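Allow me, if you will, to draw on your knowledge of protein folds for a short while. A protein sequence and the structure tokens that stand for its backbone fold form the material at issue. I would ask you to consider whether the tokens describe a fold that such a sequence might reasonably adopt. Thank you for your consideration; the sequence and its tokens are set out here:
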Amino acid sequence: MQKHVTIIGAGPAGLTAAYLLRKANIPVTVFETDPTYVGGLARTMVYKDYCFDIGGHRFFSKSQEIEDLWTEMLPNDMLERPRLSRIYYRGKFFTYPLKISEVLFKFNPLESLYCALSYLYAKIFPIVRPATFEDWVSNHFGYRLFSIFFKTYTEKVWGMSCKVISADWAAQRIQGLSLFSTLLKACLPKIKSRKRKKIVKSLIDTFRYPRKGPGMLWEACADKIRNMDGTIIMGTQVESAAYHALDKQWQVQYRNQQNELQTILSTHVLSSAPLQTLANSYLQPALSKTTQEAARRLQYRDFLIVILILKDKNKLRDNWIYIHDPSVDVARIQNFKSWSPEMIPDPTMCCYGMEYFCFKNDALWSSADDILILKATQELAKIGLIKIDEVLDGCVIRQPKAYPVYNDDYKENVLRIREELEEKYPNLQLIGRNGMHKYNNQDHAMMTASLAVKNILADETRFNVWQVNQDAEYIESTC
């Protein structure tokens, strides 16, 4: 049988895989549950001609292969944008990356002394075997700075104590960034490394960004796949994926938008669906009960964003602001006009995204849209960025399973699932953030897809997709 690849999910990983496979003349079929948008968490949604991200995606990668792919997918519509982020703490805004002079000026001398002493203590008496997020960050920055610039925001994001979150999370997302590198950046901002691989990604000054948001790139990618005779089926849920070991084929069943049961045969399956869903829903033969139970123990953090539209009074020029104030529930504020002016149809207006992290069906998730819009408006006013009566319109977007949770037993559960999948289904590869239950960024998700495609083309597993993002140097999503 000629190679044919079924791809579950049309996010960055799934579409990258489909694009590269079609370039190699391998037939592909992509299944996407969303009836309208491709791009997954990197999609761009539209409300009354206002475009907005779901999570905020800077286009910068330490991989030249990924940078080249972005250029190839969207050659004429990428802007070079300045990077501006701040932290809001105790009624004050701090530029991020931190500027030492600003921190010393805005903190009272006693607080600054406490931070310095705490850092020195951590260097002299580090926690020998850091097991939690709190342990790991305190070792690197000192407990005082951890409590100021990490604790509140991280616990808002994950809905659990930093004493419970695995140290793996910090190691994956913050590795490579030290207090020294932050202070060096603050004191010597003009010094830049010419080697892309040595750049700490959270300290970049500029990044690329599509004119109409990241979804513009993924829509263009989907069009290219279709123009190369690739198939993308929207609004469709895979019902079963049965692997036949004798002929090494997959029989994939799905329902189309007319609710008709359809079947296709494939030689390979790439899945970016949530690992929990894949393990417990449609694989045949089914995984063992022990492995299914491990999958049920995986946790996800859900997410909603409240879009607020108002007149632009030039009060905010940041791409986003991290809210470390426990008196409000909002965790991060996006300013879509700063991402790209073309996201806003009227230059006299602006559009903010108030990001809230929650669990599906909890009180926040279940609140009516008008209640959430009012809450977001009141919190934005409390922070001091607007007056309550300035908001003219708004909408709410809910995103389930936005972030795989790194709790204390996630690693063992993922390993159990991975081992049985690899044993039973040699022609199945997991890609992307939710597919691997691994907090990959957009470029890392794309790299997992690229390596999976190389394995298919080589007819053997030469590349380990699980090694992607082992040396990540991000802090942007946690601080």
Q: What stands out?
A: The two ends are 50 Å apart (CA to CA). The domain at 300-404 is CATH 3.90.660.20 (Polyamine Oxidase; Chain A, domain 2).
